[in-house]
Amino acid sequence: MVALFVVLTFLFFILIDLLVLKAQGKEHPAFAVKVFDKRFFFPAEAILSTGHLWLQKAQNGFYKLGIDEFIMKALGKLHLVPLKAEGESVNKGEPILQAVFGNRTITFRAPVDGSIRFINKNINQKPVDDPYGDDWALLIEPKNDLSLSSAFLKKGNDALKWLHDEFNRFKDFVAAKAGEPELAGVTLQDGGNIVEGVLRSFDDNTIKEFEEQFL
Amino acid sequence: MKQIIPKITFWRVVAVIIVVAGLYSTYLRFTGGLGASTNLSDEFPWGLWIGFDILVGVGLAAGGFTICAITHIFNIEKYKPLARPAILTAFLGYLLVIFGLMYDLGKPYNIWHAIIYWNPRSVMFEVAWCVMLYTTVLFLEFLPIALEKFRLKKLLAFMKKVGIPIMITGVILSTLHQSSLGSLFLIVPQKMYPLWYSGLLPVFFFISAVGAGLTMVIFEAYLSARAFNKGIEADLLSRIGLYGVIILMLGLIIKLIDFALTDKIHLLFTINNYTLLFYLEILVGTIVPFGLLIQKRIRENRRWLYASAIMVISGFLLNRLNVSITSITPGAGVSYFPSIYEISVTLMLVTLGMWAFKFIAKNFPVFASEVHFENHNLKYSEKLSEGKI
Question: ipTM for the complex?
């Protein structure tokens, strides 16, 4: 009976806590909407393009390429579809990858000139879950040496700082677009925070604008 | 102006009442002795303080060594955001275990005897040494957090250099004493109800501590999110939850094989309160959460993840208290229910632990985002001062 008593006491405190939060009009984290916040992770050894694609040196002079965490947070659950086949070459600025969310898409552009060497089969089967890990998109062989002096490739703290700036820019973008009251409710919860996957709440024109301004 | 008197909230009032009651019970315990303050007896010498404060406390602190092993030994970097809160929980958990033990020992002022008067044949001797050493290791694992806070860079660099051997030592010590807590009960086979007695108790204790310890990391993350209004690493936690229930299921399978090999299967079909408690323990603590968290859709749902963590912890509480109290009852020939003073001391220890966690988490870089910003800001300001920006 002691065992039951202890467990019931534990459950009693949890229940009371839920009731207290409810009385205070607050939300328990278990019931909260995921907030898109400033906390970003970016691998130290990778480089980031201003089109929200990252590159990381693999073997034989090839580079892994994938999308960053910012896109994940802005779009929520998404699938990646490569727009080039293995062996094809691609020029900087050409469409290289598409993110599919619901029945809509956004297109990423190649950060460098090069050839596609391999496509990660992982991304065909499941939504992106680990953008810097298992769910990279493809292996690319850049035509020229990648140099960080190039303004569009960022690394380490610069990449993180840039992601924070992008977050602030995105917050302004969302605030400006959330004119309709019902959209504002979805997007600007918790005194100005935006929720993950917020872009899904917008119309096609806004998605297109996002693509033009951020990718 | 900084607020000196904290705002009165429901939980603060409850916590103060609990601590005041606990302090009174402490006074009674140390002035009147165990007889005046507990329902313990010669027939039933170990009660709530051993069952909950020690066996549950140590087990739930196992998240510290498990996450350390994952991040620092197997170098799976993505779980690093969970490491510091897990280490802090473990460190405070062990301090409270030692603190709680002082209440249960008849002569607490002799607690240091294990250091001088060695008895290497005793399991309790091993537990005492492992707990002492592991608490020291946890302090060393926690130290970089404090050094970062006070910007003691040279010492911090040194601690980072010796960090891996410290972590490995911690994992070894934890493995030893998590299992030897189970070994404590090997010496009383005739006193324990056979559903909970097994020669594999050390293995069961170790496996259940790893599984429940991982789940405790989830529970603690939700508590922190609630207390500090911060986000939770839902992706990492859902995976941790999956690993936890797989480990617990493995433990249950070993247990059932052990039942078969030791001719105890019939006990599962003997209907009495013990069997019902055993079923409750494995259903709530392993089978149901396993069935839930094995499904990706469910473990990625915050509510279900939280509910599953609560179930696993409840099952773990049942298991440890069933082993230490329920299973002893028929053999002891007397029943035991903790006195109000035993209960209030235990509640006070939990409350003190939560206060300490809150204080440290507020004042030191414990959470990943703060660590990141702390490092980022440090590097940024260094570069600024060097004229590089």
Answer: 0.88
